[in-house]
Amino acid sequence: MRYLVVCNALGMSTALDEMVCFSLYTASRATTQAYRRLLDPWGLTYPQYLVLVQLWTRGPLPVRALGDDLALDSGTLSPLLKRLENAGIVTRTRGEADGRVVTVALTSRGQALREEMADVPAQLFACMSLSMESAQALLDSLHTLTASVQTANAS
């Protein structure tokens, strides 16, 4: 890491500087660290926050749909949901018609968090120092990149 800092300070680039995948990785880590700081007052992790965002916008969801939305497998999602349930933020209910289907819904506490956390996106956006136009262009590029890589991996 120190080598990278010295090289960049001297205007030199390294192999890592030329790798899109490494830039995506470091940007993701930096963003996750910013979220960690912002979410700390509520004792939430970034993946837990993403679950809340989906439930706030889409309403109660089957675990499978939530996992698909967040690109999380059940081994990652189940313990995360259990912690949110133990904190009184969500409920998990088995379907009456099919007991294999578990639906996740917000409790009143989970609903209240939406208002309490309303400023989190703006705070993160401020950390990024992007204009609205740059943010939209970046988002469009990332969606295109993700779709391309997923298509290539499927073949």
Could you give a quick summary of the protein structure above?
The protein has 155 residues and is mainly alpha-helical. The protein has two domains: 92 residues, Arc Repressor Mutant, subunit A (Orthogonal Bundle), CATH 1.10.10; 37 residues. 66% of the residues lie in helices and 8% in strands.
Question: How does this model look, in words?
Answer:
This protein has 155 residues and is mostly helical. Helix 2 (20-39) crosses helix 7. The protein starts with a helix and ends with a helix. Strand 2 and strand 3 (102-106) form a beta hairpin. It has a 3-stranded antiparallel beta sheet with strand order 1-3-2. It has 2 domains: 27-118, Winged helix-like DNA-binding domain superfamily/Winged helix DNA-binding domain (Arc Repressor Mutant, subunit A, Orthogonal Bundle), CATH 1.10.10; 119-155. The radius of gyration is 19 Å and the shape is globular. Helices cover 66% and strands 8% of the residues. It contains 8 helices and 3 strands, in the order H-H-H-E-H-H-E-E-H-H-H.
Give average pLDDT, whole number: 90
Beta fraction of the residues? 5-15%
Question: What's the total count of β strands?
Answer: 3
Helix segment tally? 8
Order of helices and strands: HHHEHHEEHHH
Number of domain modules: 2
The oligomeric state is: single chain
CATH architectural arrangement of the largest domain: Orthogonal Bundle
Broad CATH class of the largest domain? Mainly Alpha
Structural class: mainly alpha
The helix content, as a percent range, equals 55-70%
Write the layout of secondary structure elements.
Elements: H1 2-9, H2 20-39, H3 46-58, E1 61-62, H4 63-70, H5 74-86, E2 90-94, E3 102-106, H6 108-116, H7 120-128, H8 132-154
Antiparallel strand pairs: 1-3, 2-3
